[in-house]
Design a protein that fits this description.
The chain is an alpha+beta fold and about 190 residues long. The chain is built from six helices and eight strands. Bound molecules: coenzyme A (COA).
């Protein structure tokens, strides 16, 4: 059976449970996805209507059925509330690579939650998905995300100039990557 046709790959870690995002997460995720601190550097236009969150949830669910990636809701082991999400999109199977994305409720930052969640996701990506390279695009100036990625082993490869048109202007993006062999060396 294809990976994309099997049951959703929920993941457990020491403190977290990563599960499928569902429509019932809409209220929680809407508050995360409209928090000015969380979205400060994202290239998406800020959401103004809860229906945009519902649509985004549908898009993230589709990633898996279309074979383009997978996105998990991040919850604490003892509580089913979605604190944020992480996962892969733009999965190019012929190149064994995908992009990583993530965001977390700002009240929970700096507790190691995303490191734990992304480590589990990377284990799944380099293992079950057979990835060789994981890429991350970060808007120039998002030092928090850059620092986070470097902490978990990603390398900065360069700056893509005026790579995205977002919020009324062209924005430069940093590109970072983590290779399977580097991930294995760190474990
Ligand atoms: C980036 C983000 C997911 C990190 O989540 P988190 O749970 O706080 O991350 P962790 O606690 O696991 O790791 C934090 C690490 O990030 C780095 N970091 C955090 N803030 C930083 C800053 N202001 N400058 C540089 N590095 C920073 C540090 O390495 C830090 O490790 P430390 O706490 O041991 O020093 C969270 O800040 C977030 O949701 N940001 C907004 C959304 C976003 O930018 N998404 C990415 C788009 S590319």
């Amino acid at each position: 059976m294809d990976e994309q046709n099997s049951a959703f790959p929920a993941l457990s870690t020491l403190h977290l449970y990563l599960r499928e995002i569902t429509a019932s997460d809409a209220d929680r995720l809407h508050s995360v996805w409209t928090d000015p601190l969380v979205i400060e550097h994202l290239v998406l236009e800020p959401f103004t209507d809860p229906r945009q969150t519902v649509d985004m949830i549908s898009l993230l669910q589709l990633l898996r059925s279309s074979g383009e990636g997978v996105r998990w809701a991040i919850t604490l082991l003892e509580d089913d509330l979605a604190l944020g999400t992480c996962g892969f999109h733009n999965w190019k199977k012929e190149h064994a690579k995908a992009e990583m994305g993530y965001e977390l409720d700002s009240r929970m930052w700096r507790k190691g939650i995303m490191s734990e969640a992304v480590s589990a996701a990377l284990g799944y990506g380099f293992g079950t998905m057979g990835l060789n390279r994981v890429e991350a695009f970060v808007t120039v100036g998002n030092e928090r995300s850059l620092g986070f990625l470097e902490k978990i082993g990603f390398s900065l490869e360069g700056t893509l100039r005026q790579y995205e048109f977002a919020r009324g202007r062209y924005q430069d993006q940093w590109i970072l990557s983590l290779l399977k062999k580097e991930w294995e060396r760190r474990r």
